[in-house]
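Reviewer 2 asked us to include a model.

Predict the structure of this chain.
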Amino acid sequence: MNSGHNQNNIVIIRFKNFIIIIALTALFLPGCATTHGGYYLKHKGIIGAEDLMTINGAEYVSLDGFCGRNGFSVSIDPVSGVAEFRGYNAVAKVLPDSQMVTVNGSAKRFSPETVIRDGRYYIAPSLAAFLMQGTAVTGREKKTEPIEVIRGPTVRTVVIDPGHGGKDPGALGRYGIREKNLVLDIGKRLKDDLERDGQFKVSMTRADDTFISLKERPRVANRARADLFISIHSNASKSRNAKGFEVYYLSDAADDNARALEAAENESLLYDTGSTAGAPPDAVEATLWDMALAENRVESRELADYVCDASKDGLCTKTRGSKSANFYVLKGTHMPSILIEVGFVSNRSEAENLNDPNYRQRIAAAIGDGIRAYKAKFEKTEGFTKKAGSD
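Predicted model (structure tokens):
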């Protein structure tokens, strides 16, 4: 009995020693999660003692303190609350009450989530350590290369998105018009118009009668690092009198007509294959969309206004204005984006015009003029950051 009891005690002691060894290893070995805690950051001089705070039992680092001590610049969007900070070739964005962070455009999670207390932002210590990798955290000398600008104050690359295609015909109108064919023709004409003077580099989500899912279309623009995304569609209505040219930017639908059109265009999700094609976005996508929307909403509305203004002079139809709607195809874009409804294929006179190649060329030219006007204003004001004509 005593022998068995002694053996049990030995096993217990060895197990406790094993746990202690594991704990000490985690505490002192470089690269372990514990080394990214506040004490380690303070020891390395990345933060000061005053920058540490415990909130709801979790350790946090003051964003202002971290950025001030390490030479990061900080700006906060007053509408979305997104905080952007830049330094040492890193551009990071955080959203309050979210673990989601984008670093140089890539999505990452850091726990605990970013919080605001008394008007100050607090971030996870692991995020601060991650941003300083290659500098203080690894003991290497800090780099001084200029920060990479994700999108500067210029408009060069445009992605044109002719709606529908392949098995998705879009709206069916008078004179045998199929939306997918109509908008493809206008898209090609717009591409030629923009490329004629060498100001733009233009690509298309589809150049033939191919089905492209609503989810893939914005990805094409993102991969191309586009400055603008232009989705082209045609409208239809139960009212045969409805007619006109209108442009939408991404936001909540403002009226019943916008909501009805939003539902009609989003029906293309039914053609997507795969069980998750029409499913709501996951938390990562939703956060990124929110961040992108906050940055691009103003520019998208400006672009919509310029295209609408150009249509007033170039087209013989009613201009219905620029409006907001929650179009799925615009959600995943990382740049200013608009959806253009070139006219109603359900209206007799408008369908007759849309069936005319010369009128389709005028539509493309009007859209092109609007894009050029936007480009000129955007570049003159350095991305709408200063008034036109100011030094």
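Residues 115 and 293 are 21 Å apart (CA to CA). The radius of gyration is 27 Å. We have added this to the supplementary material.
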